Amino acid sequence: MDECRYDVVGIGNAIVDIIARCDDAKLDRLGLPKGHMRLIGEDDVVSLYKEMGPAVEVSGGSAANTMTGIASLGGKSAFVGKVSDDEFGRIFRHDIRAADVSFEVPLAENDAPTARSLIFVTPDGERTMNTFLGVSPLLNNGEIDPTLIAQSKITYLEGYLFDRDEAKQAFHQAARIAREAGRKVSLSLSDSFCVDRHRQEFLNLIRERVDLLFANEEEICALYGTKDFATACDRVAEDADLAAVTRGAAGCVVITRGEKIEVSPDPVEEVVDTTGAGDLYAAGFLQGLARDLDLRTCARLAGVAAAEIISHIGARPENRLIRVAREKGLPV
Amino acid sequence: MDECRYDVVGIGNAIVDIIARCDDAKLDRLGLPKGHMRLIGEDDVVSLYKEMGPAVEVSGGSAANTMTGIASLGGKSAFVGKVSDDEFGRIFRHDIRAADVSFEVPLAENDAPTARSLIFVTPDGERTMNTFLGVSPLLNNGEIDPTLIAQSKITYLEGYLFDRDEAKQAFHQAARIAREAGRKVSLSLSDSFCVDRHRQEFLNLIRERVDLLFANEEEICALYGTKDFATACDRVAEDADLAAVTRGAAGCVVITRGEKIEVSPDPVEEVVDTTGAGDLYAAGFLQGLARDLDLRTCARLAGVAAAEIISHIGARPENRLIRVAREKGLPV
Asked: Given this model, what pLDDT does residue A140 score?
């Protein structure tokens, strides 16, 4: 790729996470779908928050997490997402800028509040997310800057954007601009329920405009309406040039049209909170690609970034990932 | 003590902590006094926040932390402090109630914002706090409920309250009510700079109205204007019936008019963030006293609670302290 201002620009929901631990019985009692993201309204936030234990607030948002991971790996990243001029909006803007990610979307005024996700983390480290999107999807009023997209090697889009029409339009707009500028487009499937909601649209997009697809096992199976992982892998090899599919503790499979590369996960002492595991996997992989590393090394870098994030609460790196990766002998 | 509704009621500043890591060079460059708390204005919050790295938000406040520690140890605690009806105020109220601490002070409206502390944590785990008090000190408009004080075995007051006249009046009011109701009064010296600012008033209070004094080595030395720890211990033995003085990695000394009991600290694998170490020490000690345990056991319980809090970011327990203490064979 020729010289670009950014390695990756990410477009996604701009969210502050409110994270508390809970046991599985509480998830059951509240009827929350374990391991998934569901959308909730503003009133639900109030009632569900009352049910949460003591929490911490930490900036999140899938693509935003990925962009902070890229910066932490020494890459140049930018984020496009929308927050309001309220306490959570100022927190989100502070945290992403402090992580050395370019973030130039102005704070919205007199609009809906900044998005927040009430995240319940069970003792096994699994996270269950309840997201109020607020102002976040309102991305079709000039927020997508064509120059920024054209100046980024890769445009990374989170599938969650498909859940709101305004955001979906912005998503398509960004993908089109990137392609027309000769840049790469990458998509994360985000959540299997999200895939269920938008299966055909995702398939069309992947076939027409996506260079690199990220998914986990459940999401790729949902995409092809199969319970058989091998079948889903065969199918995605026909539709996408490159797909990186994560399998939790079983590592990941990198799939090209001619090859399947299996990579073991990076060892983790204790899985504390899986929030952001997929986001940071994507960060490592994308940063490897931006550095023209081979696919196996990209996957290893992805695994190292994911291992860091699940070893603590919150989906933003607590350690400088470039240092962690170098200690493991990776060429970053 | 006869039957009370609460083991301890704590009165203090109601603060949300904004915690970020930094190196020592940054503290120097910003001129921040390492290991101390200093008060800052609302404008300083904006400029200093810009200097911070990516942060997490977690409820704090010295006495508030102590009350959550007591609840986590299975005790009954209540907290009196003031927050506004803003995002941070709602976070503070949620977190303390979710920790099973009674908190009935209404959210203030149309007033100053909720207090926040910008906390810089260096690689050695030391925390340096920059606190904007906002609405927090406005505690003299009926917030001190005489019935609540009279129904609590111990009233626990943080020295930080002395930094604002309105809060200091509330402090004296609460101490007087507790004494008149035949309850115990406990004071934490909070910070050596705070002691420097109010030395004589603290001494008068300790001699007249305090049953149990908490301090660290630096604070007790500041109180008596000496650099010699043994001298400070001798002096406090004359002024207070009971004092518990912490010495960081050197453990603590419990001082009565006739005895000095030295207790080793609880082992900690890694000191991540010392924010709240003194607060949780006080929690363990107070809960031990409320359960009529001997002083050495009170100090050990204090050490266990402090060890838990410094092993992670933030000053609220992440693990159920009663379980941790029982695993160590302590009778709670």
From this structure: 80
DSSP 8-state secondary structure symbol assigned to residue B310: T
Residues of A in contact with B94 (CB under 8 A): 49-50, 52, 54-55
Q: Choose from B49, B51, B57 for mutation: most chain A CBs within 10 A.
A: B57
The distance from CA A283 to its chain's CA centroid, rounded to whole angstroms, is: 8
**Distance, in angstroms, between B122 CA and closest chain A CA?**
13
A94, B68: Cβ pair inside 8 Å?
A: no
**Rounded CA separation A305/A319 (Å):** 10
Cα dihedral A266, A272, A278, A283 sign: negative
Query: How many whole angstroms separate alpha carbon A11 and alpha carbon B99?
Result: 36
**Contact between chains at A55 and B98 (C-beta distance less than 8 A):** yes
Q: A–B: how many Cβ contacts below 8 A?
A: 57
Q: Which residue of B has its CA nearest to A53?
A: B98
Instruction: Please state the domain count of chain A.
Output: 1
Please report the pLDDT score of residue B2 as a whole number.
Answer: 55
**What is the side-by-side strand order in the sheet with B212-216?**
B77-80, B6-11, B152-158, B184-188, B212-216, B242-246, B252-256, B260-263
Residue whose tokens read 């902590």: B17
The contacts of residue B157 (CB under 8 Å, 6+ apart) are: B10, B11, B12, B63, B171, B174, B175, B185, B186, B187, B188
Closest partner residue to B87 among A58, A87, A314, by Cβ?
A: A87
Cβ atoms of residues A11 and A155 within 8 Å: yes
How far are the Cα atoms of A275, B13, B186, B319 from residue B158, in angstroms, in the given order? 36, 8, 9, 24
Cα gap A193→A200, rounded to integer Å: 13
**Residue in B closest to A21 by C-alpha:** B318
* Min distance A225 CA to chain B CA atoms (Å): 39
Quote the CA–CA distance of B269 and A176 in Å, as a whole number.
52
Q: What is the CA radius of gyration of chain A?
A: 18
For A48-57, the pLDDT digits (tens) are 999 999 999 9
Identify the closest residue of chain B to A101 by CA–CA distance.
B54
| Number of neighbouring beta carbons within 10 Å of residue B193 | 17
Report d(CA A16, CA B88) in Å as an integer.
13
Residue A1 inside a domain? The answer is no
Report whether A154 contacts A289 (CB < 8 A).
yes
Query: Per the domain annotation, does A34 fall within a domain?
Result: no
Which residue from B minimizes the CA distance to A54?
B95
Q: Does residue B1 sit within a domain?
A: no
Q: Which residues of A touch B50 (CB under 8 A)?
A: 94
Rounded distance between C-alpha atoms, residue A12 and residue A161, angstroms? 6
In a domain, A293, yes or no: yes
CATH of the domain at A255: 3.40.1190.20
Q: How confident is the model at residue A321 (pLDDT cuts 50, 70, 90)?
A: very high
- State if pTM tops 0.90: yes
Question: Could you tell me the residue range of the domain that residue B90 belongs to?
Answer: 6-327
Please determine, for residue A78, whether its predicted confidence score (pLDDT) is greater than 70. yes
| Interface contact flag, A94 B314, Cβ < 8 Å | no
